[in-house]
Each structure stands twice: as structure tokens, then as C-alpha cells.
Write a structure and sequence with these properties.
Blueprint (H helix, E strand, L loop, with lengths): L2 H6 L5 H4 L8 H38 L1
């Protein structure tokens, strides 16, 4: 998934993530990016495990 789609649907409180000039803090963006990377990594691991399990079960069924 692209980063634009992921962050497009997020609505964050404006007062917590902007400084006095109305700019977004870089540290907030970096922390959000790291959280999204962790979530994506975990989902990729889960998907890989599911795929390997399905292939293993299919192989066992074929060998019987």
C-alpha cells in the first residue's frame, strides 16, 4: 500500500501536531511512519506464515 493511501484517512487533532507557525512536527511524522512500517511488517509476516502453512498442508495431503 502506498503511504498516501495510509495517511489519507487519518484525522489527527490539529493542535497536538502543529507548532505555532502551523507546521507539522517532523518527529511526529517520523514516528507515524515507523508505526506504519511495524504494522506492515507484522502483516507481511502473518501473510507469509499463512502461505507457508497452506503449502505445507497441501503437500501433506498430496503425499497421503
Amino acid at each position: 500500500m502506498s503511504s498516501q493511501i495510509k495517511f489519507e484517512n487519518h484525522s489527527l487533532p490539529v493542535e497536538n501536531h502543529k507548532n505555532k507557525q502551523g507546521r507539522v512536527k517532523l518527529t511526529d511524522l517520523v514516528s507515524r511512519m515507523n508505526e506504519e512500517k511495524k504494522k506492515e511488517r507484522n502483516s507481511n509476516i502473518a501473510l507469509s506464515i499463512a502461505a507457508v502453512s497452506a503449502i505445507t498442508v497441501f503437500g501433506i495431503i498430496l503425499s497421503i
